Amino acid sequence: MRKVALITGASDGIGQETARQMARDGWDVAVHYNRNRAGADLTAQAVADAGGRAEVLQADLSDQFAPQRLMAAFDAAFPRLDALVNNAGIVDAAARVEDMSPERVTRMFAVNLTAPFLLAGLAARRMSTKHGGAGGVIVNVSSAAARLGSAGQYVDYASSKAGLDIMTKGLAEEVAAEGVRVVSVRPGVIETDIHAKGGQPDRARTLATAIPMGRAGQPYEVARTILWLTSGDASYVTGAVLDVSGGR
Asked: What's domain 3-244's architecture?
């Protein structure tokens, strides 16, 4: 029987590549998106081409009730949940903290921390042997910004991702004896569209010289890390935060 993963923010970038890699490794995938339906359909097609089953699910994770609705839609489409990849995230235009509006900060934390926090709890309830589940893995996609701070750029983004790392540690300890592993992946500068969405389309190339490996990373490199963490090869890994950042 193929395992089933729910991947948020799977219409492009790391989420899309993770769905492709997991399908090739024998997973069926629930493909979540917010606005980019065309990208989500491309992801679903890639899953199908790899022999997997895909269902496309829409949810605006800035809505406090979206996690519950998303999980209900997942339950209607699939009989089990083996992995949650909390990948969806947003950035905003570069700014200093003193210039950030309440609306910006509220939305940043809603999408990047509150929604994955609630989704992780909903997933843990479905996976935990305490509640009759068969176990599973929760992968939180954080960012190297969580330890770098991103001064003058995205301190709100960095703070939300730091919160995600702490949630990873705490939840991992809560459910470690219940068959559920919880881990965090911290990508560094990766060549995705998120930079353009933040108004800096050339950011990955600009920062390449500050990376010890001398280049930005590729979505594939993060996706393969997530694939390993969801596999049996990582069966003794929980509560860990793994940097995928080229040494930065």
From this structure: 3-Layer(aba) Sandwich (3.40)
